[in-house]
Amino acid sequence: MQKTGKKAIVKEMFDGIAHRYDFLNHFLSLGIDNYWRKKALLHLKSFKNPYILDVASGTGDFAIAALKYNPSKIIGIDLSIEMLKKGDEKLLKKGLDRVIQLQPGDSENLAFENETFDAVTVAFGVRNFENLIQGLKEMNRVLRKGGRVIILEFSKPSSKFFRLLFNFYFFYILPLIGKLVSRHSKAYTYLPESVDTFPCGKDFLAIMNHSGFRSVSAQPLTWGIATIYTGVK
Ligand SMILES: C[S@@+](CC[C@H](N)C(=O)[O-])C[C@H]1O[C@@H](n2cnc3c(N)ncnc32)[C@H](O)[C@@H]1O
């Protein structure tokens, strides 16, 4: 896996914060991220024992939450070996390492045959892709016909007043706590900045369409702080 540009920066960043990632995730979101994950994965309920690919799986929380839908198997891929190591520790401890298999991989060049998976999931991953369209097209390629993509990502709150309040937290408080706890100088400044410049709502749906998905939909959560996007192949 040769990595250049944004990819190398993102990999280094997540390798650097892996030891504190889970704690900070739940602490900084006051645990709401778990509710968002559960809500997003409701879109798996029509599948019987789905074979799932969890892209940008990190420490595996989205994959673990997907177990509720009795998957035949979940493969989780990620660029960051340190994030995967933390995930593997969790899976071993919980005895889940047979159903969920974490492995290194690049979302923009997936090492799977065409039409392999019933569902492809990504939580808080697409924003970090170096080439978003290439990543989405790859996800489409490995999905079976009729298969579903479920994407959970940060978005921008639509209410001006709430956005002001939220941005104060997101741009000033969160980076401070993130830096103190993770000891990484840039990761928690990158987070709000990357959300600010990333397409959301209708703009993101247009990109999904362009990447080959149909019946795309967006469901904002918690005043639009995050959004669930779904699409069908
Ligand atoms: C914010 S974390 C999300 C982890 C996990 N999905 C979760 O919900 O907690 C983003 C992850 O995306 C991974 N990532 C970024 N670009 C990637 C790419 N091109 N291919 C695979 N993983 C990537 C990072 O290494 C990181 O682990």
Account of the protein in words:
- The chain has 233 residues and is α/β, with parallel strands linked by helices.
- It has a single domain, classed as Rossmann fold, CATH 3.40.50.150.
- The protein has helices spanning 5-28, 32-41, 61-65, 81-94, 132-142, 160-182, 187-197, 202-210; strands at residues 51-55, 73-78, 100-104, 117-123, 143-154, 214-221, 226-232.
- Strands 3-2-1-4-5-7-6 form a seven-stranded mixed beta sheet, with helices on both faces.
- Strand 2 (73-78), helix 4 and strand 3 (100-104) form a beta-alpha-beta unit.
- The longest helix has 24 residues, at 5-28.
- The protein is globular and about 45 Å long.
- The two termini are 27 Å apart.
- The mean pLDDT is 94.
Rg, nearest Å: 17 Å
Distance between the amino and carboxyl termini: 27 Å
Q: Strand content of the residues, in percent?
A: 15-25%
Low-confidence stretches: none
CATH topology: Rossmann fold
Q: Describe the sheet with the most strands.
A: 7 strands, mixed
Q: Ligands in the structure?
A: S-adenosylmethionine
